[in-house]
Amino acid sequence: MTAATAQLSLGRRRPRPGFAVAVAFLLLILLVALWPGLFAGDPLRADPLQVLQAPSAAHWFGTDQLGRDVFDRVVHGARHSLSIGLAATAIGVTAGILLGVLAGLAHRFADEALSRSFDALSAFPLLLLALLFIAVAGPGTISLVVAIGIATLPHYARVVRAQTFVVRQAGYVTQAVAFGDPRIRLVIRHVLPNVLGPVPVLAMIGLGEAILAAAGLSFLGMGPQPPSPEWGAMLSEGRGYLHIAWWASILPGLAVTATVISLTVTGRHLQRRFEGRTDGAGS
Amino acid sequence: MIRVEDLHVTFTAGRRRIEAVRGVGFTIEPGECLAIVGESGSGKSVTARSLVGLAGPGAEVTATRLEIDGRDARAFTESDWRRVRGGFAGLILQDALVSLDPLRTVGAEIAEVLATHRKAGRRDRSARVEQLLTDVHVPEPRRRAGQHPHQLSGGLRQRALIASAIAGEPRLLIADEPTTALDATVQAQILRLLAERRAAGEALLLISHDLAVVAQLADRIIVMQDGRIVEAGTTAALLSAAEHPYTKKLVSAAAGRRRPAAIKPGPVVARARALRRDYGRHAVVREVSLDIHAGEIVGLVGESGSGKTTVAQMLFGLVTPTSGDVSFEGARWSAVPERRRRARRRRLQFVSQDPLSSFDPRWRVGRIIAEARPAGPVAELLERVGLGADVADRYPRQLSGGQRQRVAVARALAPRPSLIICDEPVSALDATVQAQVLDLLAGIRNDDGTALLFISHDLGVVRDLADRVLVLHDGAVVEQGPVGEVLAHPQHDYTRKLLAAAPRLEATRETV
Amino acid sequence: MRAVLRRIGTGLVVLWAAASAAYLALLAAPGDTVDSIVGDGADTPLIRSQIIAEWHLDRPAVVQYLDYLGRAGHGDLGRSYLLQRPVRDVLAGQAWPTLKLALSAAVLGILLALVLAVTTRRPWARRVSSTTELVLVSTPPFLIGIILLSVFSFRFGIFPVAGDRGFAALVLPAVTLALPIAGVLTQVLREGLDRALDEPFAVTARARGLRASAVLIRHALRHALLPAVTLIGWLFGILLGGAVIIESVFGRPGLGQVTLSAVTSKDMPVVLAVVVLSAAVYVVLNTAADLTYLLIDPRLRGSRP
Fold first, then answer.
1. Is B95 touching C (CB cutoff 8 A)?
2. Is residue C80 predicted with pLDDT exceeding 70?
3. Is there a contact between C17 and A222 if contact means CB atoms under 8 Å apart?
4. Which CATH superfamily is domain B1-88+217-255 in?
5. Predicted local confidence at residue B35, as pLDDT
6. Which of B15, B357, B364 to mutate to test the interface with A (most CBs of A within 10 A)?
7. Which pLDDT band, with edges at 50, 70 and 90, does A15 fall under?
8. Closest CA to B442 of B462, B423, B427
9. pLDDT tens across A33-57, in order?
């Protein structure tokens, strides 16, 4: 393109109201997850006289088949989804970084071996891998966390490995040799920060995917067992009453959707903002 | 044939408006060659592309008069433009590697033009494609037509691109920096080809930042700066009696600078003996020996594939020679492990062709220079290379090409080296900016006595800066000696070829 | 040719690694294998020794492993603890409905993505499409399924609520599965098209007098398909995982049902077989994608000028 159009595309900034909304929602969810008691009552309290009531002033989200307030349950469910997602992502990211950097810096043979392992792990669809793990270890929160963590590991490992390759051969690494610094210093000052740069944003988007996966597995009954107010499980429980009480299923589902959307929007926006930073050859 | 008056092209994106072209006017008569010369950002490309209605997305084009082939182009519909494109005017961009669709064969690209402008029926197309390739002197046209762009050498690719531009039998050829990505000898071939097309009756519109390239072909030249025409006239008039200061800058940049007075060289700073480097069975560097004395500027000239970058890497210590050795400041260098060399490292610095990739993208300029641990303040170094102290707070990606190169030089100066190896430091810069950076390097040698090894594919640039020159061809030194000597009396065939291809203006060259 | 062989070789290695990993998981399963096989049946030392002999449970671990690999290579995937039938039969019987669902969802998703990516080039269309894609990708597939069920089956009664009878029963599940796939593919394709149209060869093409639509379809699309092709493996993973959930939502028979009941009853041979089989298909598809990549992009073929 000509110099004029290049200049124009560099300066283009897209003020997005969506970003502000997404961040606000995320903060809200975080608050709700940390202090559910502030926002809602007891999720386990069942009132047999109030079974399957439509949303009203008394019950914002209506009640479910056991007379429990759906709003209370959704609020308390935030903690489950968020913590499972965070823990799983933490496992995936940490292991992914370690293995990815190792593969990127290692000699050809070790790198090949590691890469094939990543490929092997990612050959299993996430859900099936998790189901395999759960078949062995039984359903529950811990199983979900470990299963999803292991399943998402190869994705992070691959990205980190690719980034390590790029950085390893980057001009600024070669140039820094001229200043007489020992290799270790080069790695710490240049390689690691540039390699790890894209990770936090990826982790954010990955968190959304982890939450989706957790909800799916809970829907199938593999997650926290009832009466825990996990969003996916709630969806499954309310399924049988769909034609008379849609709110019991759909509202928890919408909670998942809103959380994941916020995470993705925030993550992508940050990605765009920091695009030039870790890319050596930019503009 | 083409008449333009008061052309304005403005780009809008959201709230930003950029006026790329402000009130430009010119004519092109059939069969003549007009050149538009200017730096990047001068609006020359946009002007040229407006002639085929491709100024760019979001462009507003207005003009008092925009006549193309006698018709008022301001009233053109999209299908009118489509008939002009390729049929009346052919566009040739730089770097055929990305200007031709890399996923399609060269023959298919050319055939597409024939199909669009109905120049040949389905059955005759491949014959016509071969004919076109022959017209542009591509050997083995049938075989080449079935190949993809990356399988052809740079020169052949560019010819194929030109073939696709003339396939529609246009009466005007617009060439936007057609030789910029090419080696000097190939550049000369392409320019000869364009001259041939002109002789065949096609008018030529040449766009370039380098006056020397266009002066050989152009009848008239227009100089643009910041979207406006600052001077226009016949080539002869412009070269001998330029009036506008910017034009004068261009002319002197193209003519070559007055070479700095050589200072008496001191003791040997770096010595390479019988360097050889093999990759597998391929010998990239064979038997290269050279000496660099303190205070000398040594030029190493060679085209792509000559091994010059590998020689630089061996001298710097990045690559170990397969045989031969390098000594630096009297002590052995290449044979010594990195640990033991480290103490002397700072005396040998490196400036590369693309400075942006040699900067950590997360760091600001100040920190980048500070990494080299200069003795004095960073601001002092910036001043030395002609940059203001405020540059220290900016990110490299916010600077222009010339500014980035200056920062790279400042960083190289920080540890007070005795030798700086510069690998094609000005190849990617506009002609006027090139001259400034070369001045800077000469100044450093004069002030500090730092030796420079200057590597380039452009003999003209080396001639303006170096004291001694070595010509590298296919991994071996074919000629060497003081610059004046080698250029006035070249001994080797290859040197002569390079000399002939160097597009420097003969008229105003200062004799050595 | 060497590149082709390398890809195939890599595929085999990955397949072997996946099978072994799954086998390791099997070993980690709690409970004694013999107990599981016996189940509620007669439990005498004679029957036990017969079981041990039949399953080679007395041999060292390495031999068992090699035995497993050998049998798997021949297509013998063991015997279901729960159903007391060869796993192969169990899976074969239920594979067709799942295959129907997966294929129709894939075709629908890909077609939708192609059409959307090519047609939504204007800024406003792009924005609308992007937002829709974002929502589709972030919504759990079971929610989409439930909403569609709610509206089209319960409210309007157009489609059946459950089962696999006839074409009508396939529509909602296939659409549910196809939407998130279309969401991601459209984005990838659109970004690929944008990037391709920014390249100089697009300018050259237009400078030849081609219509913008011709440049898009004849030049840019091929370039945009490149990154999309690499997603085939991922696509399949989503399809299979999603099928398990969708079959549950819509009450369809198929591999999903089989897998779920196997997991809850710890019927390890079945779970293992499903997992390894899906890994196998993934590897095959990925290798095919790599080879297709070689076909589409001549720059990778490594031919010298």
1. yes
2. no
3. no
4. P-loop containing nucleotide triphosphate hydrolases (3.40.50.300)
5. 92
6. B357
7. low
8. B462
9. 888 777 777 777 777 777 777 777 7
B359 with A172: Cβ contact below 8 A: yes
Under the banding of pLDDT at 50, 70 and 90, the label for residue C305 is very low
For tokens 């000509």, name the residue. Answer: A2
Average pLDDT across chain A, whole number: 82
Beta strand B16-28 with B2-13 is: antiparallel
Q: What would the mean pLDDT of B263-287 be, rounded to a whole number?
A: 85
Report CA-CA distances (Å) from C83 to C76, C88, C152, C247, C258.
Answer: 16, 12, 36, 21, 11
CB-count exposure of residue A120 (10 Å: 0-12, 13-18, 19+): buried
Chains that touch A (3 or more CB pairs under 8 A): B, C
For testing contact with chain C, the best of B99, B143, B147 (most C CBs within 10 A): B99
Mean model confidence pLDDT for chain C = 80
Tokens describing residue C113 = 């993505």
pLDDT at A283: 30
CB interface of B with C, residues 369-428, below 8 Å: none
CA dihedral B401, B406, B409, B415 (to 10 degrees): -130
The sheet that has B468-473: what strands, in order across it? B348-351, B419-423, B451-456, B297-301, B468-473, B476-482
Residue B35 DSSP SS3: strand
**Which residue in chain B has the smallest CA separation from A2?**
B45
Cβ–Cβ below 8 Å for B360 and A172: yes
What gap in Å lies between CA A225 and CA A140, rounded to an integer?
7
| Mean pLDDT value across residues A132-136 | 81
What count of residues does chain C have? 305
Report the pLDDT value the prediction gives residue A280, as an integer from 0 to 100.
38
Q: Do C263 and A246 touch (CB under 8 A)?
A: no
Instruction: Write the CATH number of the domain with boundaries B268-347+417-511.
Output: 3.40.50.300
- Within an 8 Å CB–CB cutoff, is residue B134 touching chain C? no
Q: Would you call C25 an interface residue with chain A, using a CB distance cutoff of 8 Å?
A: yes
Q: In this complex, do B41 and A7 lie within 8 Å of one another by their Cβ atoms?
A: yes
Q: Which amino acid is at C247?
A: E
Residues of B in contact with C210 (CB under 8 A): 82, 112, 116
Q: Which residues are CB-contacts of C118 (< 8 A; sequence separation ≥ 6)?
A: C189, C193, C216, C217, C221
Task: For residue C79, name the pLDDT band (cuts at 50, 70, 90).
Answer: low
Q: Tally C-beta pairs within 8 A across A and B.
A: 101
Is the separation of the CB atoms in A36 and A20 below 8 Å? no
DSSP code of C299? G
At residue B292, the 3 state secondary structure works out as strand
When CB atoms are compared, the residue of A4, A5, A194 closest to B362 is A194
Partner-chain contact A171 B354, CB within 8 Å = yes
Give the pLDDT confidence score for residue A245 in this predicted structure: 79
User: Considering the entire predicted model, what is its pTM?
Assistant: 0.81
For residue range C226-269, list pLDDT tens digits in order.
888 888 878 888 888 888 888 888 888 888 888 888 888 877 77
| Phi, psi angles (nearest 5°) of residue C301 | -75, -10
> Among A1, A174, A180, whose Cβ lies nearest the Cβ of B56?
A1
d(CA A197, CA A209): 20
- Residue to mutate among B68, B84, B98, B101, with most C CBs inside 10 A, is B101
The residue in chain A having the minimum alpha-carbon distance to the alpha carbon of residue B176 is A2
Mean pLDDT of chain B: 86
- CB contacts of A178 in chain B (<8 Å) are 316, 345-346, 348-350, 372, 412
Bridge partners for B66 per DSSP: B4
Q: What does R_g of chain A's alpha carbons equal in angstroms?
A: 23
Contact in structure between B92 and B162 (CB atoms under 8 Å): yes
Contact A208/C30, CB-based, under 8 Å?
no
